[in-house]
Amino acid sequence: MRILFIDIDTLRADHLGSYGYLRETSPNIDDVAKEGIRFDNYYCSDAPCLPSRGALSTGKFGIKTGLVGHGGTTADMRIEGKNRDFQDKLAYMSLPALLKNIGFHTVTVSPFGERHSAWWFYAGFNEVYNPGKCGLERADEIVPSALEWLNKNAESDNWFLHVNVWDPHTPYRTPSDFGDPFENSSIPSWYNEELIKRHRKLAGPHTAQDLNMYDNREDPRFPRQPGEIKNMNDLKQLIDGYDTGIRYADFWIGKIIDVLKEKRVYENTAVIISADHGENIGELGIYAEHATADNITSRIPLIIKWPGGLKSHVHQGFLYNLDLISTLYEIFESEIKSKFSEEYIQMFKKEMDGISFADVIFKGENISRKYLILSQMAHVCQRSVRFEDWIYMRTYHDGYHLFPKEMLFNLKEDPHEQNDIAKESPEICREALSYLNE
Hints:
The protein is of the alpha/beta class. It has helices at about 25-35, 50-60, 60-65, 90-95, 95-100, 110-115, 140-155, 195-200, 230-260, 295-300, 325-330, 335-340, 340-350, 360-365, 425-435, and strands at about 1-10, 35-40, 40-45, 45, 105-110, 125-130, 160-165, 270-275, 280, 285-290, 300-305, 315, 320, 370-375, 380-385, 390-395, 405-410. InterPro entries: Alkaline_phosphatase_core_sf (IPR017850), GAG_Ulvan_Degrading_Sulfatases (IPR052701), Sulfatase_N (IPR000917).
């Protein structure tokens, strides 16, 4: 068995062709989607980068691991304390460790651990390739290490390769010789001059007047990214920069797929494509940042092509990224039971917060949570409830954005969160609060 996990930082699902985007940002990713399953309501439980990958790696909510933010105590994983063994639990209960301990050779090409001093992220990997630029790498500085490894090892059995690319993340740094694939493409129709005028009146970091955290300076090293949004030309420049980053990442992902096909192992390789979080580009008045617990930041793509799994299938059920490790557990349950004690198996089931969606992959079953609780603690302090057509957002600290205490959006009618209807919908807000307090 071979597993390739493509982990794309800052990738919002609705900017992929396979998710209905109007621009051709992702032809290679879309081809994989045709051969597998597209998950339409897949969310990171905890945003942004550090909390999200903490949940993915451990299968636990951030409120259990302690990983809910990007600094201070919110960025430190809780220690096990007096019950810690010679090795901690991550040595055999993280996602890569689970696979490693049943015979997979596990490899990551990622700067993530260094970027966030999140050294726990490397637990369970046999090999770690860190390009050393702390997440400022382009795909051409990440993928060649993966290609070199695959050229040597693709035909071997039982490997798990995690490849982490960062091109959609600011600063938008796709090399100039890649050109502008979207120079003559229109932007989504919901953007207009009136929206920009309204957003330029808003306060806070990463708003139309200050795209950076603290100012609106432009960096000559990154000409694809404006310092502020004054007009539609600036907005198009920003969207083009983001979408070109996706297209560049997709271009290099295609090279990985090509090697698997050249080695004649693609058909029998599981391919997982996902992200840590999305990116607001005007939603809630925030641009080029993943700063809230809203639908745009928290919803992430998930595409799975699995040998023996369904093809061209779309799953609508609500799921978390932390459900993936429980899914892998079910898929490899017989191997796990042959390698681990009953004590370990019971401890794993007790520790994990996830549910398995293996039967979605192989049978197309409608597995779904009733609602999702979404967290953001890096830029603001928010917890949200995603249920039915709604997202309800509760703000505890507004990050200087002057958000109201409660916000409610009907995502079916208002996917870009422009019309807060919390005041007009008290009963729906009360229902959401009941879920939040469970």
